[in-house]
Each structure stands twice: as structure tokens, then as C-alpha cells.
Amino acid sequence: MVADDASPANDADDVDDANDVDAAELLARAGFDADASVLTERQAEVLALRERGLRQSDIADRLGTSRANVSSVEASARDNVDRAKETVAFAEALSAPVRVEIPEGTDLYDAPKRVYDACDEAGVKVSQTAPDLMKTIGERAGDAVYGREVRERLLVTVDADGRIRVR
What we know:
- The chain is built from seven helices and five strands; from the N terminus they run H-H-H-H-H-E-H-H-E-E-E-E.
- The protein is mainly alpha-helical.
- The longest helix has 29 residues, at 67-95.
- It is elongated and about 60 Å long.
- One of its GO terms (molecular function) is DNA binding.
- Pfam families: Sigma70_r4, TFX_C.
- Residues 84-166 form the DNA binding protein Tfx C-terminal domain.
């Protein structure tokens, strides 16, 4: 839950400009369609206003609700966005021609060979050197990799264009 009421704006002029923001116009310019989105219109509105520097308390005043309610709406919206990203990553992993499992306990230095071998077998070109590929896997794996140790099972996928994703 996002309980921080800090504003990204740094001075009073920025806050005044942010208060003049028309949320409906922001949503229209971004092409928001509530029927096609995982976000409700209220969630999208809160995220748009927060991105423009409004504090939760200012948004609450604007919407005629409490700051706690705005915080809850924002937290739900961010959770929905994260879940949508995970769904897209899953769908991309299903359709990727190359899927390589990197088991827990694997030395990260062994991961590039596994990926290159699977790509060679599938006829997919990877344009990263082994050190770059290790760095990509390590960075995208987050806490699942510590130093050179893979601490949680990873799924590395490579699409037909050679783009690498790590789940």
C-alpha cells in the first residue's frame, strides 16, 4: 500500500501547475479505455494525477474523498499494473521459441552457455556476449541471483528477434 503523501513536485509553482491538471484530458491523451483496461477509471485517474505531481491529499480534496481512500485506490491500481505486467510476461514466455530453465544453485557463469545452446537449436540469434548476457540475466532476476549464485529457479526466454526476458 502506498501511504506516502510526498509529492514528486519540488516547489510551490510545480504544485500549482499540477493542481491545474485535467485528469479526464490526461486519460484521453493517453488513450485510456476503461472497458479494455485492468484499471478502473478512478484508478487510472489517481495514477495520472500522482504522475503529474499531485499529493494524495490534494487528489482526495479534488475527488471529494479521504486521503486514505486515495491511497487505497492508488495501491490497488499499482497492484493491477504489476499483475498485468506479469500476465504479459507469461504470455510472451509461452510464445517464445527459446525457453531455458536455470535451476536454483546454478552458477550464473553457466547460464550463457545454456541460453546459447538452446538458441542454436532453435535457430535464434542472440546479439549479446556472454558477459553481457550474464549481466542481463542477473539484473532482470533481481533478488533471485546473489553474486554468481542463482538462488531461485529462473526461466530465460528469447523471442524470435533475440530479445531476452527473465522470469
